[in-house]
Amino acid sequence: MLDSGRLSATAWRISAALEDQHHTAAFDESGQGRDAILVERARGGDLSAFNQLVEVHQDHLFALVARMVPDRDQASDAVQEAFFSAYRNLESFRGGSVRSWLNRIAINAAMDIQRAKKRRPSQPYPEFEDESWQPPAGPEADPERSVMEAERGRALTDALARIGGDQRSAIVLFDVEGYDYAEIAVMTGVSLGTVKSRIHRGRLALRSILADRMELFRD
Amino acid sequence: MPVSDQPSLHVRHDAFDVARLAAGDVPPADRLRIRSRVDGCPECRSLLDDLLAIAAASVLLPSPGRTVDFRLTEADASRLRGNAVARWLGRMAGPRFAFVQPLGTAVAALGVVGLLVATAPSFARTPSVPVELSGPTAESPAFRAEPSAAGGSLSAPAAVPAPTGGSSLADSAPATAGPAGVAGPATAAGLASTEPSPAVGPLGAAAPVTAPPRIAAAPVAAVPAAGAPTDSGLSARSKDAAASPATEEGPAAGPEALGMSAGAPDRPEWQPLLAGASVFLVFAGLGLLALRIGARRIRHA
């Protein structure tokens, strides 16, 4: 039989994360009206309105793109290009969630960067050396636990940077961003089966890379 | 020995199935089989645990910190906005004007259909008799119709070639309108675009004349001026057909006598208009399509 204790701990972590995502989603819903107003103002030529949108979404977009494009400079370029593209194509926004719309633009920009990088490889496995990658720790956090989580995050980030770009994008969109298979298929322009295959094979690749560090992930 | 066989057994196990199980992607038909295999193989069980742990850790992956401010400057905005034409094209490329593309397609298709309608009947009514392009012109005396007093049948024009000559029938229309009593040519002009020469139908098939399928310019207007003998007694003409001004003129050109439908004489009136309108629709539709597609290409460039 499976280790039920370990599974329940894993399930608790996933449910906690999902709950956190639900809170984020609720916050997003409340912000949709504000975003729609800002988009309308930006369509009318109000640059400050568009810049307010940028302020609201740039952290999230950068986090998303930086996970898909391990090189931080390239991630910054992709996010900047995404905002440029969004500004150029304000007229094409059909309503709905501005966050999803920007996500799609940013994902496309990130994939373009990855394709360009595949054609012109520069650094095979760039390292994440910036200490700002540390997760935020509250005053009540256990220092030992914080260190463990930071180490786990670094190991996983490093492993993500070493798998294929398509698999990395699929895992980030599925596991980190919480999109479902169909949404990822639409965003990345591949079939549902390909999305599933990329996620499964990407996880297997991560496990292979992290084989000697799996104790970090076993509480 | 089951214990010693375990590693070799695991080699044959598909890790992809375990990954599918970890993601909850296994169809119900396979779930029990894969589940039992995972339960019976320590390596597979360990792999499943690891995949679940990695998935859980991925959810909690820390957010990378942003070091760049991505807000746009005025220079960026003006560069991205472009000039007035680019902005207008950008609006045209937007979803608000998505209807332009199907509209353009529909308008162009309508125009093509109109062109087909305006031109197709001429092909359908062209007799198989070869066209003699070197026939006399409309001014030729041989072109005149001479209805007989009694039977109304034409005598001389039966052997008369159609006024096709080297010029188009449309061009010959004014000439046919000149002398009073010249009935045949007037109707020939009136039917120029679609019908055989008036000398052909009722007077026997001897006349090797066929009007080429052309669009007449102003054929019917010339008909009343012809002053040709009306009600000449062509037996086959019906009263309905006689109601049309074109049919009243040339006795030899009666639509019924020519084996045509009663509405045929009206065709020259609307045919050029339809053709013109159809051409306009085709160009307008293609223009709309080009505008929309061009705007989208420019925006994506």
Structure notes:
The complex is a heterodimer of chains A (219) and B (301). With 219 residues, chain A is an all-alpha fold. Chain A contains 8 helices and no strands. In chain A, α2 (47-68) runs antiparallel to α3 (72-88), α6 (165-176) crosses α8 (192-209) and α7 (181-188) crosses α8. Residues 123-129 of chain A have low confidence and may be disordered. Chain B is mainly alpha-helical and 301 residues long. In chain B, 51% of the residues lie in helices and 0% in strands. Chain B is elongated, with a radius of gyration of 40 Å. Chains A and B meet through α1, α2, α3, α5 and α6 of A and α2, α4, α5 and α6 of B.
Beta content of chain A: under 5%
Largest sheet of chain B: none
Q: What's the structural domain tally of chain A? A: 2
Shape of chain B: elongated
Quickly give the structural class of chain A: mainly alpha
Q: Rounded to an integer, what's the Rg of chain B over CA atoms?
A: 40 Å
Number of strands of chain A: 0
Instruction: Return the average pLDDT of chain A rounded to an integer.
Output: 80
Count every helix of chain A, treating DSSP H or I runs of 4 or more residues as helices.
Answer: 8
CATH architecture of the largest domain in chain A: Orthogonal Bundle
List keywords for this structure.
heterodimer, A: 219 residues, mainly alpha, Rna Polymerase Sigma Factor, Chain: A, Arc Repressor Mutant, subunit A, 2 domains, 8 helices, 73% helix, B: 301 residues, 3 domains, 51% helix
Summary?
Chain A has 219 residues and is mostly helical.
List the helices and strands and how they pair.
The complex is a heterodimer of chains A (219) and B (301).
Chain A: H1 4-43, H2 47-68, H3 72-88, H4 98-119, H5 143-162, H6 165-176, H7 181-188, H8 192-209
Chain B: H1 2-11, H2 15-23, H3 28-40, H4 42-59, H5 74-81, H6 84-93, H7 100-124, H8 169-177, H9 183-190, H10 239-242, H11 245-249, H12 267-300
Helix pairs in contact in B: 2-4, 3-4, 6-12, 7-12, 8-9
